């Protein structure tokens, strides 16, 4: 998007993406996209070429995402009520489609950000659309990050690291295929 004119400069992902809801840019200008419908997290170069799949059918409903300074990718997984942590290093293709951690969140996360010291902040809703309003911002304790300010604090009783489900348990739902 040209910020001066508002005109679209270019597009990509057509035929690859179904319902992209989250987008982030790495320090290397790679573009990371969470696709809720296809249950994918893809990394593109700045020309729109897919560099690697960060997650395929590991997440139930990927939405907002961000990349931390350590190149971990944090994804708000709405239906799992969790923040998924993925390895976003381009030089680590062996880590493709590997879940580092799944951090439990009370409610349904829709957006996520990471502070400079690694604390995870998530926007969360109650998931009762059309029934009752409810949303909040929460700090998600990350026991995998020793430098986190929140790691030294006692975790709230609802926060925990969820056991990782085998891919077969999550991947049983059909994934749409581009036409």
* Major sheet: arrangement of strands: 1-2-3-4
Q: How much of the residues is beta strand, in percent?
A: 35-45%
Q: Counting H and I runs of at least 4 residues, what is the number of helices?
A: 1
SSE order: EEEEEEEEEEEH
Q: Which parts are unreliable, with pLDDT below 50 for 5 consecutive residues or more?
A: 151-179
- Outline the biggest β-sheet: 4 strands, antiparallel
Give the terminus-to-terminus CA distance: 27 Å
Can you characterise this structure?
The strands form three sheets. This protein has a four-stranded antiparallel sheet, with no helix packed on it. Strands 5-6-7-8 form a four-stranded antiparallel sheet, with no helix packed on it. The two termini are 27 Å apart. The longest helix is centred in the last third of the chain and has 4 residues, at 167-170. The protein has 179 residues and is mainly beta. A hairpin with a 5-residue loop joins β1 (20-25) and β2 (31-35). The chain is built from one helix and eleven strands. The model is unreliable at 151-179 (pLDDT under 50).
């Amino acid at each position: 998007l040209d910020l001066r004119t508002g005109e679209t400069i270019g597009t990509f992902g057509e035929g690859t993406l179904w319902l992209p809801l989250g987008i982030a840019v790495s320090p290397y200008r790679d573009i990371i996209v969470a696709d809720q419908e296809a249950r994918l997290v893809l990394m593109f170069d700045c020309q729109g070429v897919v560099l690697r799949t960060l997650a395929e059918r590991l997440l139930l409903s990927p939405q907002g995402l961000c990349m931390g300074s350590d190149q971990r990718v944090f994804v708000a997984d709405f239906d799992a009520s969790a923040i998924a942590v993925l390895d976003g290093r381009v030089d680590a293709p062996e880590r493709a489609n590997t879940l580092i951690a799944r951090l439990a969140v009370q409610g349904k996360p829709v957006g996520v950000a990471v502070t400079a010291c690694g604390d995870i902040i998530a926007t969360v809703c109650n998931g009762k659309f059309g029934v009752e309003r409810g949303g909040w911002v929460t700090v998600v304790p990350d026991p995998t990050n020793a430098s986190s300010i929140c790691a030294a604090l006692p975790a709230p009783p609802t926060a925990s690291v969820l056991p990782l489900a085998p891919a077969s348990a999550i991947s049983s739902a059909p994934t749409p295929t581009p036409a």
